[in-house]
Design brief:
The protein contains 17 helices and 11 strands. The protein is of the alpha/beta class. The strands form 3 sheets. It has a 6-stranded parallel β-sheet, sandwiched between helices. The chain has a 3-stranded antiparallel β-sheet with strand order 7-8-9. The radius of gyration is 26 Å and the shape is elongated.
C-alpha cells in the first residue's frame, strides 16, 4: 500500500535538524524528498555524530542517518547562478520547499517566495529560522542553546529551588530543531490543505524562538494572575512532586492530590511518621518538604524502581520510572510496538534507530531507503529527471556547482 503522502514531491534545503526533521516526517509517510546538500561539504550534521566506535566519518553520523531516511540526496550550490537555475528547475516540479536557510543567506542567494512562485505558483515554501523572517532579530544567527535560552525554557530548567547557585540549563541535543521540525511539518500540511481548497501555494514561516515560547504552558499567566515571574527557583506550593533515587535508578513521584498521598502511605506500609500533622495535606507537605523529603527519600532508596512502580500502580498512585536510554532500547513495550527499526546503510552498516511514534491502518509508515550518501542521486535527479548530459554534469562538478 502507498504511504499517506506518496503523491507529494518535496525539495529540502536543510542543515542539521529543523528542516531535515520536518521533511523526514513527511518522507517516512511516503512523500518523495530530494535533499540538497552543499557540494563536497554536505549537511553539517554529517560531522556531528554520534559515530560508530567514535570514529568520525561523514557517511556514518547517527544524527544524519536518522534525520534523512527515505530521501534522495543531491549536491548543489544554490548561491551560484547555474546552481540556482537547477534549483528552480527542481522547484518547478515540486509541491513543497522546506528550508532552514537563515534570512541573511536567503537575501544573499535570492531565496524568496516571490521569485520561486513565478516558477511554480502552487509551491508551498516553508522557512524555519531562529527568529522568523522579519523583526529586529531576523539577521541574528543562533544555535540550539541560543534558541532555548531566548525561548524562555532555560530559566525554567536547572538545579531547582534547592540549588540556586546552579545556572539555567537547556535539555540534551537539538531539541529546538526537532520542535521546529514538528511545527514546520504541521504548518506545511495546513498550507497544503489550503491549496487543495484555493488552488494556490503560499509562504509559511516558523520561528524557532516562538516555537519554544509557545511550549511554556501557563508561565505567562503567572504575572497577570499572581504578579509572579515564573522560574525554576520558586518553592512548590503542593507536594510531593519530585524525582527520587531508588536502589537501581530514579523514579518520579507525583502525589499532588490528598487521596493519592493516602494510597502512597499504604504502599509504604503506613509508617508512623506519615501520621504527623505537618504531613496532613498537600499544602502542609509542601511547607514541610525539608522533613518529608528525608523520610520519603529513605523509603524510596530501599526500593527497586520496578518494584515500587508496580506497587504504586496497583494502588493507582502516579509514579513513573525515569527511563535511561538502555531502558528504552530494551523496553518490552516498545519492542512489542515495533518502535525501533534496523536500517542498513551501505557505508555505516546496520544499526537500530527510533521509528515512528504513529501508525496508519491503511497507509503505512515505512523506511523505504536509508539516508543517502553525499551526492548519491546526482545523476538520477540532474541527469535522469532534468536531462543534463554526462559531459555537462562533469563540467558542473568541476566548477563546484554540484
Amino acid at each position: 500500500m502507498a504511504g499517506a503522502l506518496s503523491d507529494l514531491k518535496i525539495v529540502e534545503l536543510g542543515e542539521l535538524v529543523s528542516a531535515p526533521y520536518a521533511s523526514k516526517l513527511m518522507a517516512d509517510m511516503g512523500a518523495e524528498v530530494i535533499k540538497i546538500e552543499r557540494p563536497r561539504i554536505g549537511d553539517s550534521s554529517r560531522r556531528r555524530g554520534p559515530f560508530p566506535r567514535d570514529e568520525a566519518h561523514p557517511e556514518k553520523s547517527g544524527l544524519f542517518l536518522y534525520l534523512n531516511t527515505n530521501k534522495l540526496g543531491v549536491t548543489l550550490d544554490v548561491a551560484t547562478p547555474e546552481g540556482f537555475e537547477l534549483f528552480e528547475r527542481l522547484i518547478a516540479g515540486a509541491d513543497i520547499l522546506i528550508h532552514n536557510v537563515v534570512p541573511p543567506e536567503m537575501d544573499r542567494v535570492g531565496l524568496t517566495y516571490e521569485r520561486l512562485a513565478r516558477v511554480n505558483p502552487r509551491l508551498i515554501m516553508t522557512s524555519i529560522t531562529p527568529w522568523g523572517i522579519d523583526g529586529p532579530y531576523r539577521n541574528w544567527r543562533a544555535e540550539d542553546l541560543t534558541v532555548w535560552a531566548a525561548g524562555g525554557v532555560c530559566v525554567l530548567n536547572g538545579g531547582g529551588p534547592e540549588h540556586p547557585e546552579l545556572p539555567p540549563l537547556k535539555t540534551f541535543g537539538h531539541q529546538s530543531g526537532y520542535q521546529g521540525g514538528v511545527h514546520g511539518a504541521v504548518a506545511t500540511m495546513g498550507a497544503l490543505m489550503a491549496r487543495l481548497r484555493d488552488g494556490e501555494g503560499q509562504h509559511v514561516e516558523v520561528s524557532l524562538q516562538e516555537t519554544i515560547a509557545s511550549m511554556l504552558e501557563m508561565t505567562f499567566e503567572y504575572w497577570p494572575y499572581m504578579k509572579t515571574v515564573a522560574n525554576r527557583l520558586g518553592a512548590k506550593p503542593i507536594a510531593p512532586v519530585e524525582t527520587m533515587e531508588a536502589k537501581d535508578g530514579y523514579i518520579y513521584i507525583c502525589c499532588i492530590e490528598d487521596h493519592q498521598w493516602d494510597r502512597l502511605v499504604e504502599v509504604m506500609g503506613s509508617p508512623e511518621w506519615a501520621k504527623e500533622d505537618i504531613f496532613a495535606d498537600r499544602f502542609k507537605r509542601a511547607a514541610s518538604w525539608d522533613a518529608l523529603k528525608v523520610f520519603l527519600g529513605e523509603y524510596v532508596s530501599q526500593q527497586t524502581v520496578l518494584g515500587l512502580y508496580k506497587a504504586a500502580q496497583a494502588k493507582r498512585v502516579p509514579l513513573a520510572p525515569v527511563s535511561t536510554m538502555g531502558d528504552l532500547l530494551n523496553s518490552e513495550h516498545l519492542k512489542a510496538r515495533g518502535f525501533f527499526v534496523e536500517i542498513a546503510q551501505p557505508v555505516a552498516g546496520t544499526h537500530k534507530y527510533p521509528g515512528a511514534p504513529l501508525k496508519y491502518e491503511k497507509t503505512p509508515w515505512e523506511i523505504r531507503r536509508p539516508a543517502p550518501t553525499l551526492g548519491q542521486h546526482n545523476e538520477e535527479v540532474f541527469g535522469g529527471r532534468l536531462g543534463l548530459e554526462k559531459a555537462r554534469l562533469n563540467q558542473l562538478i568541476n566548477k563546484g556547482v554540484i
